[in-house]
Amino acid sequence: MNLITFFLRLTLRIYAKLMRTIIGRFKAKEPPSAYTTLAILSICALYNTANDNITNHYVFLSTTYYESSPIYKPNTVVTLFNAVDQIRLRRTFICYSKNETHSYWDYAKIRYAYDPVGVCKWTAYIATCRVFEGFKELTMAHSHMKRLEANIPIRLPYKSKQKTEVAACFSPLFYNERWQLILTTLEIYRHFGVHLQVFYIQSILEDIMRVLQIYQTQGFAEIEPWPSIKLGAQALKEIGFDPNLELDWRNQASAHTDCFLKYREAAEFIIFGDVDDVLLPKLGTTYMDEFRLLSSTHPTAAGFTYSRYNTQLQTGASPDQFSLTHLINSARIANEWEDGKYVVNTSRVETAWLHYPGIINSIRKDKCKI
């Protein structure tokens, strides 16, 4: 047990004893004494000082600059990063934006990107801060250790010539070799009106990658690399574990949020799911017809969750044996319910999780289950 751990445990024991004393006095309608109050304040100050000396590691995944946005104030950057769960959110970053003649700084607002699952040691956060129009460079520094600055690469939101009605963000593909599922999902989603499908790739067979690249050149798909977190030996020694093994579902929710932050400006609605999840509209002939109908029925909804059932399909093992018509006709839907997948209104949500939105615009709190 190191000195800091010993000190924190001792502090918590003393704090718990004092709190029992305070609660007992409040029950007796006696205010705490000046000595007790001073002791509590001193312990809190020492606890904060000890926490400020603990080293945390941060993995910055992306930083997106919004010149204008329906959610954020003008000239806002949103940084998505992974770090240990329960970092001190009061220990914020400072954003420094500058160009050849001007500079500006702003405190970053740090929030969980979504509710942590609780069993993983690491999770995802977003940090938002303002920059000035025309900035060329962004650096971020810890508010308590300004010497530790990092240059942050900036990306712009994806924008097409004409705003897409519906897009889809898929969970990262990991050692994917099931080309039948990818082709089926691509074509069914295209048929029902998804004009932009975003595939995050960790690893995939080369032949399947070439097929996706053909769809990309035709403007139907986008491909985003999604590598695992790679830290140096010294950082792993300090952390004591591999962060990749302590992020829920291979960091899928971070990929969903990364996709949303980049493509939200390009679509009115975004579907989130796995590549083997196919959403079938029942209230209209296209996704857009259904989403608009649902939005008119539930005008305050930020998104819609769809029930999901396991389905058995028959398909050919080789391309010359593959038939999309035969595959669809062979579908057998089982009475085995799985956690639902969802679609969001991009103007009402800030982040995404696996089965429902992460941060929802405070004005729009409703979700509708279909």
UniProtKB/TrEMBL annotation:
Class of this enzyme: transferase
Short name of any one Pfam family annotated for the protein: Glyco_transf_92
Transmembrane region(s): none
Main location, first listed in the record: membrane
Domain of life according to the entry: Eukaryota
Similarity section: Belongs to the glycosyltransferase 92 family.
Protein name: Glycosyltransferase family 92 protein
